Amino acid sequence: MVAFPSRRVWIAALVLAVAWIALSWRPGLPPTPPPVPLPQDRLFHPDVVIQSRALSQLPRDLLAIPLLGDLLTEEFVFYYERNESRLTLEGAFRRLAYERHLGVGDEIIAHVLDTPAEVALWKNKDGKLKDYLLLLPKKGLLRFIEALSWLAEGDSQLSRQGKLKLPNGDDLSLWRIRHTPRSSLYLAVSGEYLAVFTDPALFDPRGGTRLAAIGQFFASAGAGSLGVSMRLPPLSGRHRLAARASFLSFGYQHFFPSLETFRIDFQPETGWDTAVLANAVTPLPGDLWERLPAAPALCVALPVDKDRLLGYLRKLRDDPLLPGLVENLRPPAALCWYGDSRLHTPIAVLPLSKRRVASAPVLWRPFLGSLFAQNIGTRESPDYVPEDDDPSLPSAGGGEESSADRSRNPLPVTEDSCSGGWVWRRQVSSPHAPMDARSSPHAEAMRSRRYFTVVFALCQETLILTPDATLADRTLGVLRGSYPALADTLKGGGREVSLTVVPHSLAELLRKSLVDSLPAASEPVFRASVEKRFLPLLEKIAGLPARDLETPRQAGGWEPLSWRARPVARP
To answer: Distance between CA atoms of 219 and 204, rounded to whole angstroms?
Structure first.
């Protein structure tokens, strides 16, 4: 059975959209630095980089973003100012300074938070940012660094971890500060810089190549050095946050193959700006939005890697017609969510070449119908035997089956004609589906009390796939001209728009998904917390105007993102 992408990819796209709609565009980006050859060592390739002239001001400046100012409030600032780990670390420095009669306890913390600094962060196996490295110039910390050796003598929290000779002849001194029983910070000093980090493996010298990489890291340390692999220009404002698309997409980078890095910059006078770095020109959507229903919550135009798609489809069902079908695809594809649907039931639409497809549907009908029947569906009740059981019909999963397996076939596929093609449907039972099984004539045959009606169609040079039959019917109505198209509501038909967000519909989509996933009977604590803290924030999001993102057109350089606000009547 073909599995739809997990909820994480939908959530990733929604998180990106919510973040971007809060940020405005301003021209005038500095030139993009050329690529710099760097070792493949993890040390040189963080997932997120923060550059700041004063880290202590970053939480408060984030509140200058209109959306975040409404959502985070002052509690966000207080959390980071009164965070337990920070207070514990401050206490360790103050204790060291007091016991050793060194009057720099508060001075160290103040200097670290107010001096220009860079922070690199890496994700761990579960995708969360865990490990970080803070790079600071030694200037202003010399008294503390010079005192580290004798401060560590006999101390229970501060200990020396060793001293290394780097390939260029410089020394690298390593210390550990155990600020809680289960967590430690590490310090590395070489040249003109101090590195504060959480993962001791970052500066583990075992192996000659690692020692060379560590030496190169400190030899090249300086303003902006942590952002070299992201090709970040020099910091001109107060703060910058940059993140790789591979991190923001939660491991689904193949949905955004040309995007490399996303960044936001803050200037006190002008606020926050956004920009993106891409390695290829993003294709314009053209007439794509003329094929989608109006009033989405979120729609995004996605590029299509034909070679990768062909390889994937061949694993499902190899056929001589498959290369011709893939070659006729006309990217980009559209992926859309609607407020009255569900987070895990979007619709995907992909145009085909009109010039080549004129006689193709007749040839592709058996192949597409078989592809759908073989790969969409699930084993239903053991007592279910289809009335139209046909041994020649491929079942979900394919391959040879025993008679026992045949008695658990998926529900039948129905086929209808449409203008220029066909529509295939199959009901699939699932506890996560939106439809009540009692509304289906196959209720007795289903394994679950709920079901999807998955729809696959080729109509008017358009491929459609969705687990929401209502969205499919609306899209078919758009193609017939009986339902309003999304293009009718976008400037210029949206021919240059690669993403559109309607916050009130998006908020409703998120609200419904949260409430459905937290039944009051089985999840009373989480449900009450969401209703008290998160649902009011969704109401604030719902009040924002709709925004359309113009397609970035630059390859190999940073490009500012341009958002257009447009009024949308709330139902």
So the answer is: 17
Q: Which two tokens stand for residue 173?
A: 């001194």
Query: Mapping DSSP to helix (H, G, I), strand (E, B) and coil, where does residue 470 land?
Result: helix
Residue by residue, DSSP assigns 326-390 as HHTB-SPEEEEE-TTS-TT--EEEEEB-TTT-TTHHHHHHHHHHHHHHHHS-----TT---TT--
> How does DSSP assign 473-516, residue by residue?
HHHHHHHHTSS-BGGGGSGGGGTTEEEEE-HHHHHHHHHHHHHH
Residue 427 in contact with residue 452, Cβ under 8 Å? yes
Q: Identify the band that residue 322 occupies on the pLDDT scale cut at 50, 70 and 90.
A: confident
Which pLDDT tens digit goes with each residue over 408-432? 578 999 999 998 899 999 999 998 8
Total-model pTM: 0.76
What letters, b where the CB count within 10 A reaches 16 and e where it falls short, cover 535-570?
Answer: eebbeebbebebbbbbbbebeeebbbbbbbeeebee
- Angstrom distance (rounded) from CA 381 to CA 377: 13
What is the token pair recorded at 481? 């001209």
Is 538 in contact with 253 (CB distance < 8 Å)? no
What are the helix (H) ranges across 22-176? Answer: 58-62, 66-81, 84-99, 105-114, 142-151
In this structure, how many other beta carbons lie within 10 angstroms of the beta carbon of residue 488? 12
